[in-house]
Design goal:
WH_DNA-bd_sf, transcription regulation, 10 helices, alpha+beta, Arc Repressor Mutant, subunit A, DNA-binding, IclR family transcriptional regulator, DNA-binding transcription factor activity
Amino acid sequence: MNGDRDRELIQSDETLFAIIDALKQSDGVGVSQVASAVGVSKSTAHRHLSTLLKHQYVVRTASGYRLGLRFLDLGGHVREQYPSFADVEPKVTELAETTGELAQFIAPEHGKGIFVFRRTGEKAVRTEARVGKRVFLHHTAAGKATLAAMSDETVSEIIDRWGLPAKTDATTTDRDALFSELNLIRDRGFAIDADEHLTGLWSVGCPVMATDDRVLGGISVAGPRHRMKDAGIESALPELLQAIASEIELNITYR
């Protein structure tokens, strides 16, 4: 009996998270649509939505249910749990102001990369990414720089778990090719994303290390292909990024 009850509770938890994910995909959705998207009855969907509404994690509007701002509070709290991030944020801002482009910091979690900070310079292009968005690490320069700072064993575990799905035609999807690229990144200290995450957008990134030799994440700058080439994607920009990463690491060490 206890086993059956445990399975029911686990299934209920899975349903709740599936509903949250379904709401994330919409600006407002009704009970029937949620039930259909998740594959549960309307009564089950309504029960979970009512619980989320009671605890202020969703709001109900004329267009239906949608996620509430309470999730924003959770996200802010999560970021504050990592004291080292306080040393990263001003440097991401500085990078955006210096280059005029899009500056980003990605942190690894559960084998994926999470955009923790994003700042736009005066020339920066808009992209689909946002703070909190999860991406495959091999899709971006910051992500590949992060992978390169990990052991081959850890990288293999990540690939085994998530695979190497393509984002564009230029994305590296071959295991051996990725490991060869990671070795190159380790040798030169920076990674390049050339149309691999978004066609037309190039980026360069380097790792930021924590005091225990664990990789904290990757910092990068991104812009249109022609501007990144003109700015020195294999020379001046990597030097700038490495200098900023070194400053962050020093600040973390002597915090």
